[in-house]
Amino acid sequence: MTETAQDRVVIFDTTLRDGEQSPGATMTHDEKLEIASMLDEMGVDIIEAGFPIASEGDFAAVSEIARNAVNSRICGLARANFADIDRCWEAVKHAEKNRIHTFIGTSPLHRAIPNLTMDEMADKIHETVSHARNLCENVQWSPMDATRTEWDYLCRVIEIAIKAGATTINIPDTVGYTAPAESADLIKRLIETVPGADDVIFATHCHNDLGMATANALAAVAGGARQIECTINGLGERAGNTALEEVVMALKTRNDIMPWTTGIDTTKIMAISRRVATVSGFPVQFNKAIVGKNAFAHESGIHQDGMLKNRENFEIMRPEDIGLSGTSLPLGKHSGRAALRDKLETLGFEVGDNQLKDIFVRFKELADRKKEVFDDDIIALVRVGEDAENDALKLVSMKVICGTGGPAESTVEMEINGKDVSATETGDGPVDATFKAIRALHPNAAHLQLYQVHAVTEGTDAQATVSVRLEEDGIIATGQSANTDTVVASAKAYIHALNRLLVRRGKMGEGADSREISYKDLT
Ligand SMILES: CC(=O)SCCNC(=O)CCNC(=O)[C@H](O)C(C)(C)COP(=O)(O)OP(=O)(O)OC[C@H]1O[C@@H](n2cnc3c(N)ncnc32)[C@H](O)[C@@H]1OP(=O)(O)O
Ligand SMILES: CC(C)C(=O)C(=O)O
Ligand SMILES: [Mg+2]
């Protein structure tokens, strides 16, 4: 065996070759250089930078990546013919450490494509691997579709490739057909059977058609493979390749049962995952292992409470180990008081138990209407909820009809000093109609100085924060409210401002229930 110690697994990244073969994932020249440099920096042993004969662009990218390489070995792919191999060498030769990777399909189905007999293909393998080895001292050979190749023929062609000078024998599960037990067993038996197997590194190249690419790659390592071929985010043909971040973190996290190491700086995983997602245009699914948005996020109350007590309750890896700043406990409809209190403290609010209870009720109401409750939503909830219990005017319910067919109509039901009253008004738009209905229920001469709407968070279900400023006889009062419904937020903000105006005046407005009540000054 060359290049590696028995417990060290070589990481061969093929994001720029097999990854780029994903339909639509084409990257520009500069993007490829950037990704290659990130792979190099994170400790990837071998970068398969492209397929140089495929196009002038691929040739230029592989050549420049080879020139720029600092630590990684740079590899290019070539079919089993001299033209491909020569072109590949012309590109990779610029790297201090380089590799030619040549392949041919050896299964019955794939032998039929060039219409070669077993013997003819065996000769071709001998010629082409020898040719590659004459150019480059580091040659990888792959029997494409190895896992569907007859056992005897597979052993025969691998022996030929080793004798012709291959230094790495890659066993591709080209169509993602293998299962973990088979994967381990295949590599183990090949190493035991093929003459010269001990002098080369066996590699595993798995595809994810049945969702087993990571399991198959790790099983192959258990069987004796010491090179894993993988891609960032599992990008690759069809369902993709083994994901680099998955095998690397699996080996790190379960080193007790998989005692092999890699040279990867795992803290760089998140950054490269995001960059590859951006440049390839393939977003990472939220629940993707390691790098998905939810991989270190806990929304449900029981989990959040457990996490706050001891993160090991629900996390087997530290988010910092992949370059995240920490665990995320997003607040949503499944969250509980422990996470809400923690969030309030993080945001600088110190709340007592009763206040927490109140905020929690409003928080659950909001969470029922909104997928995710952001920090700004919480701030809005706390501020808006101040002293609501003492308000003389309260919104009970409202219904608005609006559209293109005529003036908007708003029916507002309020509780004014404990008494339910309602009014319907029309207006120039839903907010105007609603404000008129409120004025009908609580007549007042306050002049609307300011009406402002902000979306505090993102998305069509964002909370709108509405600010209203009223002026009456030189007294100014402001009101605010936040709601996913802008018209509801507007009504509440208007009523909030009216309540403050009442407090400032120290008496009820004319026409409303005129019982004397005392208010504390809120402004
Ligand atoms: C499993 C894998 O990931 S294999 C890698 C797959 N990646 C790619 O194919 C991406 C890059 N490919 C390309 O740009 C083009 O296919 C090229 C430039 C390589 C070849 O283009 P063309 O000459 O037009 O051939 P085309 O793509 O139509 O067909 C492939 C040819 O390669 C031959 N071929 C396929 N694999 C091999 C091989 N390992 N060794 C030798 N010849 C091969 C086929 O038999 C076919 O030959 P034919 O044209 O004589 O029938
Ligand atoms: C070129 C080979 C190694 C390949 O990508 C495959 O067989 O999947
Ligand atoms: Mg492949």
From TrEMBL:
It comes from Shimia aestuarii. GO terms for molecular function: 2-isopropylmalate synthase activity; acetyl-CoA C-acetyltransferase activity; manganese ion binding. Pathway: Amino-acid biosynthesis; L-leucine biosynthesis; L-leucine from 3-methyl-2-oxobutanoate: step 1/4. Belongs to the alpha-IPM synthase/homocitrate synthase family. LeuA type 1 subfamily. It comes from the Bacteria. Its EC number is 2.3.3.13. Catalyzes the condensation of the acetyl group of acetyl-CoA with 3-methyl-2-oxobutanoate (2-ketoisovalerate) to form 3-carboxy-3-hydroxy-4-methylpentanoate (2-isopropylmalate). Residues 394-523 are annotated as: Regulatory domain. The gene is leuA. CDD domains: DRE_TIM_IPMS. GO terms for cellular component: cytosol. Its cofactor is Mn(2+). GO terms for biological process: L-leucine biosynthetic process. This is 2-isopropylmalate synthase. Mn(2+) binds at residues 18, 205, 207, 241. PROSITE patterns: AIPM_HOMOCIT_SYNTH_1 (PS00815), AIPM_HOMOCIT_SYNTH_2 (PS00816), PYR_CT (PS50991). Keywords: Amino-acid biosynthesis, Branched-chain amino acid biosynthesis, Cytoplasm, Leucine biosynthesis, Manganese, Metal-binding, Transferase. It catalyses: 3-methyl-2-oxobutanoate + acetyl-CoA + H2O = (2S)-2-isopropylmalate + CoA + H(+). Homodimer.
